[in-house]
Amino acid sequence: MTVKELDAACVAHTYSRFPVEIVRGKGSLVYDETGKEYIDLGTGIAANVFGVSDGEWVEAVTRQLRQVQHTSNLYYHRPGAELAGLLCEKTGMKKVFFCNSGAEANECAIKTARRWAFRKYGDESHSTIVTLKNSFHGRTITTLAATGQDGFHTEFGPFTPGFVYAEAEKPEQLEQLVRENGCCAVMMELIQGESGVTVLSREYVDAVIRIAEANDLLVIVDEVQTGNGRTGKLYAWMHYGFTPDVATTAKGLGGGLPIGACLLGEKVQDVLTPGSHGSTFGANPACCAGALSVIRRLDEELLTGVEQRGAFVRGQLEGAPGVKSVSGMGLMIGVETVRPAAEVAAACIDRGVLVLTAKSKVRLLPALNIPTQLLEKAVDVLKEELAK
Ligand SMILES: *Cc1c(COP(=O)(O)O)cnc(C)c1O
């Protein structure tokens, strides 16, 4: 059987895959089973921040693999402690809980907010969390409940109660929901990724923070996709001039290995206590070693490079034939297309450029260090397909 046949026969049909089998790669180039080359503008959905098999990252991970690949959280280990230290140092957050994915990082944020409120009020009267419509927070029952899209709220019920949804850019709606429900937190993506790379305005985020302060709510930001240099800052909240109470991240953090983190600010740093939360593989040493090498490299020079590459792509696409609009920040870019986005993506892939879609947009999430020459070549192909 071919890989495609075996997959069709035995892998649960939860994904509609592009017709490409990826065998290997280097940096921003990947190759299929026939040896065909692709320029990768998707990076495993913003996971491979330095592309495929980046030398420094491979070295960091394999060095750790040769020492010890897993310990459980019953023991101490250096990569986990150092990664937490570096994240706190670079963000001003106070504690870090490690897990394996974005959904799990959000579960941790939700548990933290609920317990913070329970301990404050002595009951569940302030357990509700306001999230935004068109958000995406994960695939577990609770993070689906947190996801403000009706399409995710069917057939798998009953869902976790305690979530209400506010329309983005309408602070009065959020305020009303807070008035009508006993709330402990507001949770948002600063750029809604999965629903179409929609950037929240500075005015709206400022208003959300004002409402949170006035009503004693925690501000939770979901940086699973926007985090780890993707937008040209280490975390997207750094564009908005505030520090959240809780931030979650995953995707790019591990540079291509599964690791998530929930960053806890001053107010909530001691909410989680021994036995109240955990994860067998959380803070896996090999994943932490990879993440440590990623976060260490995300310095000012690299982040400036992300902004420059992003500005180049936006400059090329804005106003180009077949483009209705371009959204995003840094190297998280959404393109509203005249031609159906899925058709553009399929045509690009056929021509050796891997792009993604998000709802009705083409979505680009290239490696943060993609060589300019490859980026130019890929954007030329994309522009030709957009114009058809
Ligand atoms: C991808 C994503 C998630 C879910 O992350 P997983 O690692 O797939 O569980 C959650 N929130 C946002 C904003 C995401 O983009």
Pattern of helices and strands:
HEEEHHHEHEHEHEEEHEEEHHEEHEEEH
Any idea what the radius of gyration is? 21 Å
Number of helices: 12
Distance between the termini: 37 Å
Structural class: alpha/beta
Mean pLDDT: 98
What does this structure look like?
By secondary structure, this protein is an alpha/beta fold. It has two domains: 3-54 and 299-386, Aspartate Aminotransferase, domain 1; 57-297, Aspartate Aminotransferase, domain 2 (3-Layer(aba) Sandwich). It is built from twelve helices and 17 strands. The protein has helices at 3-10, 43-46, 55-67, 78-91, 102-121, 141-146, 171-180, 202-214, 285-297, 300-317, 341-350, 372-387; strands spanning 22-26, 29-32, 37-40, 95-99, 128-132, 163-166, 183-188, 191-192, 198-199, 218-222, 246-249, 260-264, 323-329, 332-337, 353-354, 356-358, 361-364. It has a seven-stranded mixed beta sheet with strand order 4-12-11-10-7-5-6, with helices on both faces. Helix 6 (141-146) links the parallel strand 5 and strand 6. The structure holds pyridoxal-5'-phosphate.
